[in-house]
Amino acid sequence: MSSSVPADTPIRVAIVDDQAMVRQGFGALLGAQPDITVVGDGSDGDEAVELVRRTRPDVILMDIRMPRMNGLDATRAVLSRPGDDNPRIIMLTTFDADEYVFAALRAGASGFLLKDASADDLISAVRIVAGGEALLAPSVTKRLIADYAARPERKQSASLSQVTERELDVMRLVAAGHTNAEIAGLLFLSEQTVKTHVSRLLSKLGLRDRTQLVITAYESGLVTAGE
Hints:
CATH topology of the largest domain: Rossmann fold
Number of helices: 10
Number of domains: 2
Domain Response regulatory: 12-130
Radius of gyration: 17 Å
Protein name: Response regulator
Pfam families: GerE, Response_reg
Order of helices and strands: EHEHEHEHEHHHHHH
Keywords: DNA-binding, Phosphoprotein, Transcription, Transcription regulation
Domain HTH luxR-type: 156-221
């Protein structure tokens, strides 16, 4: 798992989209923030892989549908690199029910945004992901994960045999979309204890962040859509 960006260090962002206007618009918006530095941009997945090698971004805004190498394949390529310094990836899409989204999240993307998201949502997304959290707040993300989980062809292959009962309680609440503070209140724990449980879950299950933890909760059958 990659670590979060230190609070006093500018967040290095790369933007990969086949539309020049999207790259320019997002670049201008993010570059104007005092805590964000745009280190480069590209128009397809091949350029994304090269950008990571050359500029070492903390966060990539990655379009899903692009020529040559699409965003899904680029995500797999970027996150399969050895080492623990791989960037966190926010997928960009114009669709709220894109087949690629499920595969991208499973491949290790930290979340996604619709391209028509507000400026505040875009900036917040970069900061959230750079801080080590998954982008689970937008309702569309929860809806997509629930839709994916309800599909009969999904595989229930994830093993939770090494997870404690208390960790399972935390995992269920994470899958329900609760924050650490909310989970602490529901389970009568301190917020730091909840953070520790989440960290242990990620380590035991070999996951990058909360998004993958949610998907694993569904894939294992720990929770089902509609619960």
